[in-house]
Amino acid sequence: MMNVLPKDLVERCKKRMEPYNCEGFVYGRGPENPEIMIVGEAPGETEIHNGIPFSGRAGKVLDEFFDYLGVSREDIYFTSTVRSRPYKIVPKKAGPNGEFTEKKYNRAPNVKEQTAHAPIVDYEIQHINPKQIVTLGNIGLQRLLGKKYKISEVHGQLLQAPVRQLKNMETNEWTLSEKEYSIFPTFHPASIFYNRSLLEKVYEDLDELKKILKRDTKG
Ligand code: URA
């Protein structure tokens, strides 16, 4: 199942994102009723070119996590807090005469951008019906559970909780879902590039997640 999103919802969310420095649009990908739904941060340059979530550098690390878990990509639904690439433009010296060019760098999506695309994640969670949601990093975690949750404090813990949903697209008010979801936060694979010591923590989290998934399949 490639795309469950209604066209008008996508068009509306693309419009909501227009004021911000975000480019491209990557659809979620994966089956309905998956073992796992991954909620990431935002696509990067690779993803907006090929349309495949987590196909860049962070995706390679994520694939190693799935190998370790023994879960195939086909059993996972991939989405992220925003579906466009947030960027910043930084002037860069280039060439023999030191002339300036501009280069686009990835950055984390801010709250306004997260709110612009919030109806997409809401729709996916409600219609894809994942057994287990795995959030990556603070952005995915806080998008679903709010700012009082910090990845450094709750990573590797199974949380049963309602998730934040955008209540009103005009006023951008939030509410909580009636249903409780099973949410397992861990670090974002890209954070390993900046802090290698997180890798050990991620593998401890994955050991925990392995136990949870086993328990679930046993019923
Ligand atoms: N990070 C994300 O959250 N999503 C991607 O698709 C790539 C990197």
Automatic annotation (TrEMBL):
<keyword id="KW-0227">DNA damage</keyword>
<dbReference type="Pfam" id="PF03167">
    <property type="entry name" value="UDG"/>
</dbReference>
<feature type="domain" description="Uracil-DNA glycosylase-like">
    <location>
        <begin position="27"/>
        <end position="207"/>
    </location>
</feature>
<keyword id="KW-0378">Hydrolase</keyword>
<keyword id="KW-0234">DNA repair</keyword>
<keyword id="KW-0004">4Fe-4S</keyword>
<keyword id="KW-0326">Glycosidase</keyword>
<dbReference type="InterPro" id="IPR051536">
    <property type="entry name" value="UDG_Type-4/5"/>
</dbReference>
<keyword id="KW-0411">Iron-sulfur</keyword>
<dbReference type="GO" id="GO:0004844">
    <property type="term" value="F:uracil DNA N-glycosylase activity"/>
</dbReference>
<dbReference type="InterPro" id="IPR005122">
    <property type="entry name" value="Uracil-DNA_glycosylase-like"/>
</dbReference>
<protein>
    <submittedName>
        <fullName>Uracil-DNA glycosylase</fullName>
        <ecNumber>3.2.2.27</ecNumber>
    </submittedName>
</protein>
<keyword id="KW-0479">Metal-binding</keyword>
<keyword id="KW-0408">Iron</keyword>
<dbReference type="InterPro" id="IPR036895">
    <property type="entry name" value="Uracil-DNA_glycosylase-like_sf"/>
</dbReference>
